[in-house]
DNA sequence: TTATTTTAGATACAAGCTAAATATATTGCC
DNA sequence: GGCAATATATTTAGCTTGTATCTAAAATAA
């Protein structure tokens, strides 16, 4: 029996409750009349919906604001309904090869606790890795003054392909074992729902939420540190592809003037070493190269030129096939990468007929955790009426 | 006032009617009990919905089938509701630079009329172009034994970027003028709703519907005749990008071993000319090259090898960034391209870590019109309850 | 105090669905 | 042909959610 969800009268309440909740979440506090105007429902219905949401814990009724002499309101004072941002928290995880960072946020996305730990080594057993991740989560929750019982969802980013259903591509070495462990481990330990995603995809979510891609529906975020990786949003949705490998940059091996999917930091080291170093004497770190260039060092400036053209070619390849409105360069090197922007922007039209706007992420290291928080919030918002707010 | 669609009790009927109609469209004829099992609704509701759909003209009640002695059915005979595939027709247009083809289909997608005309020249004025298109439509409708009044929607494919809203990228030369003309012209002439799309995108719709990509959600169709162009579906949705230019192949200019976005037919001519021709004596058409190769001609075979590797590189580039499950080669050269498949499949793993299945389209020249019909049907199905079937 | 304004709450009713009882049309058996 | 069994159809009462309308309450302004 296929049983394709029949629409019963209860669906109406569900739909209207979702609409009201979404609006209240957006404005933080609303009156019945505002909600009537928004939804087109009558007052009776709006009030009924709000009482419903109050009893479920998603909104609370707040006192009248003290009467404001500058802006006196006629008429009977309205009841005021506020989004209960303390109905629970979400966790955003950035699980790297070397380090894991956790951020705890309330339901409006304000980060209220953080923690970070490095792994003892890269090849530690899955069990130890999970222990460290669990530790980071608990530390972050403690820093936020809350506990595991109040977590409504966990977003987690890893540097491996993850498909639409949150499964790690099995062809990847140790991650596959690790993944299965993480989701069920956190479920078993705390009852948490873990939403696994590729880190570049989460970066795209984060950038669109609180970065330079705010509100852009066709957005690509390039994580450009050690290795290039792209998170692609089209029409406001993340692209995954069949096995979650969308946004992988292996094809750059074949692109003239690019030749590899090495990131900006990796290349800065290599190229400065080849030059004998910007101030001579071996490879320099990426920040050093950018510093030297800012100071006028010609060798460093040449590296920047070369890097700009290379990035322009990378971005043009993506722009041609995906046609984003904007490409954001993010990751560890994002701040320095600002120096590349003029060069990239100038070179782009040579390589593509549809050059996107190019910007640099303001989110820094937090880009993945911000996206992970957003991912978890999206889940909570979409499933609010099926989730029991933690009391 | 934002007025975000309130859910009234009428919405329930709408949702349930959509579900019932979708199911009946799939199975062609259904009984009340089947629909109860499918939707989970009670018989009373199912019957009410069906009566509704009958009065709107979307379904019809059909007589009992003559009692079948091999399979006698106990109990009171069920009323049988059938999809009214003759509630109207849709038009699918393939508007090329040189030729326009129209297909008329009933609401189950069976093509019941076709027509095709060439333009007098490529640079004729927009007005003349529209006249020819209109003529082709009317001829196809006549061939189908129906008339303009019964057209519920028109899908139209053109070889230019078209954004999500059906607007042609304004940077394109004469198309922009042409487009505005086409949509409003057909609206004015016949009251038709025209859904403009990029031809490769429609090819992808067609291939997923009735081609070798049936049911594949992450699918790329490469139109590979004169110029390469891709229609990309991810998670069952067409990718457009900001200005509709997603799937453009300009970046191939930068890809080693590819170098241009020339199609198979164009390259077969050029390469055979460079060789002095497969049987000597100047350039040969693509079909000729494939023929000669099949006959064992070594020069032609060499061209095929070269072509296979080149296509493998093209497909690998896309596979890396988009990660489709399958890539279909379509367009005028599709039939001959079968000879390239073994070579492409063998070469792919050298160029990408996520090689897709590669096939050749069985739809031949009709690939765009089939997709255009599907596009129009999608529109009709999504908007059935707001559309008045043509009586 | 009194009028005005805005929101709140209560009552009557409509749309759509469920559930349960009753009616109808067919098969199969005597 | 008559009757049980079976599957479907139809009717009736009741639930949920919504609208529409009327009256009450709480504030400002004169």
From TrEMBL, chains A, B:
The keyword Transmembrane helix does not apply. CDD domains: ASKHA_ATPase_ROK. Keywords: Kinase, Transferase. InterPro entries: ATPase_NBD, ROK, WH-like_DNA-bd_sf, WH_DNA-bd_sf. The keyword Transferase applies. Belongs to the ROK (NagC/XylR) family. This is Putative NBD/HSP70 family sugar kinase. It comes from Arthrobacter oryzae.
